[in-house]
């Protein structure tokens, strides 16, 4: 995969064109003939440049030929609601699609239901490729999660919270280079609340995790009165609940 593209490179597309050379004329050529030749040459050159110019999604959303790669490949998962009776959670978890470029992400995001349109008791999960959104996954087992839970669903825009979260995740703006802490994000849709979670690889790097938590809270644009809390997956597994006692909060 190519080197990761910076946000500036994604939003600023520069189409470089070769300079048009001035036509060379002889002493016997009239001004009118010179102008006509120059116009024809410019027209041909412009046509050739248009044919050879690389199209981006900003020029032509249907026929773009350039992709802006992400640093990692990501997979979107969906947990569908149980239809009643005792159902294994793993059977409800479905892999949807994987992507590794900015263009693919927006193509997927704009063609799936928004978080606010999901049925009750369902979830979206966006995780690094090859990582299942489960505590038991070897890459998650020693980690934990930051979580923001809102009980007053009318007071928040869950679509904005989810979009901002996953942009921070795939853009890797929530951690320092080389940390490799962020594993994925989860949007939980319940009758009584919404919850946005950010999963991490470890649970004992308090200094680094607090930095991630502060950036996460800022990314969600939460007021000082609201808190995001961190809990480890091992504590959650021991308690048998996804809402284990928090280790720290910001």
Name a few traits of the molecule.
disordered N terminus; 22% strand; alpha+beta; eight-stranded antiparallel beta sheet; 30% helix; RNA Cap, Translation Initiation Factor Eif4e; 7 helices; 250 residues
Please identify, by name, the CATH architecture.
Answer: 2-Layer Sandwich
How many H/I helices?
Answer: 7
Count of DSSP strands: 8
Pattern of helices and strands: HHEHEHEEHEEHEHE
Which segments are poorly predicted (pLDDT under 50) over 5 or more consecutive residues? 1-29
Tell me the CATH topology.
Answer: RNA Cap, Translation Initiation Factor Eif4e
Could you give a short account of the major beta sheet? 8 strands, antiparallel
Query: Gyration radius, to the nearest Å?
Result: 25 Å
The neighbouring-strand order within the major sheet is 2-1-3-5-6-4-7-8
Broad CATH class: Alpha Beta
Describe this structure in words.
This protein has 7 helices and 8 strands; from the N terminus they run H-H-E-H-E-H-E-E-H-E-E-H-E-H-E. It has helices at residues 7-11, 31-52, 89-92, 102-109, 158-171, 206-219, 233-239, and strands at residues 69-79, 93-101, 122-128, 144-150, 182-189, 194-200, 229-232, 248-249. The radius of gyration is 25 Å and the shape is globular. The two termini are 36 Å apart. It is an alpha+beta fold and 250 residues long. It has a single domain (69-249), classed as 2-Layer Sandwich (RNA Cap, Translation Initiation Factor Eif4e). An 8-stranded antiparallel sheet has the order 2-1-3-5-6-4-7-8.
């Amino acid at each position: 995969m190519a080197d990761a593209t910076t946000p500036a490179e994604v939003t600023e597309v520069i189409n470089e064109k070769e300079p048009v050379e001035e036509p060379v004329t002889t002493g016997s050529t009239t001004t009118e003939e010179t102008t006509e030749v120059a116009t024809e040459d410019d027209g041909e050159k412009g046509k050739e440049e248009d044919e050879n110019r690389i199209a981006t999604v900003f020029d032509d959303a249907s026929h773009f030929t350039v992709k802006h790669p992400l640093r990692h490949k990501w997979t979107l998962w969906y947990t569908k609601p149980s239809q009643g009776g005792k159902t294994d959670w793993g059977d409800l978890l479905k892999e949807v699609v994987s992507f590794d470029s900015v263009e693919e992400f927006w193509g997927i995001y704009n063609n799936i239901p928004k978080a606010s349109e999901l049925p009750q008791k369902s979830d979206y999960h966006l995780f690094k490729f090859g990582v299942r959104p489960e505590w038991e996954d070897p890459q998650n087992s020693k980690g934990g999660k930051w979580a923001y839970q809102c009980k007053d669903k009318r007071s928040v825009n869950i679509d904005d919270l989810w979009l901002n979260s996953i942009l921070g995740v795939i853009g890797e703006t929530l951690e320092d280079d080389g940390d490799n802490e962020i594993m994925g994000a989860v949007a939980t849709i319940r009758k009584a609340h919404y919850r946005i979670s950010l999963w991490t690889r470890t649970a004992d790097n308090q200094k680094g995790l607090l930095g991630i938590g502060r950036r996460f809270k800022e990314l969600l644009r939460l007021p000082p009165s609201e808190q995001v809390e961190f809990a480890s997956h091992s504590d959650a597994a021991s308690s048998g609940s996804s809402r284990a006692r928090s280790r720290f909060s910001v």
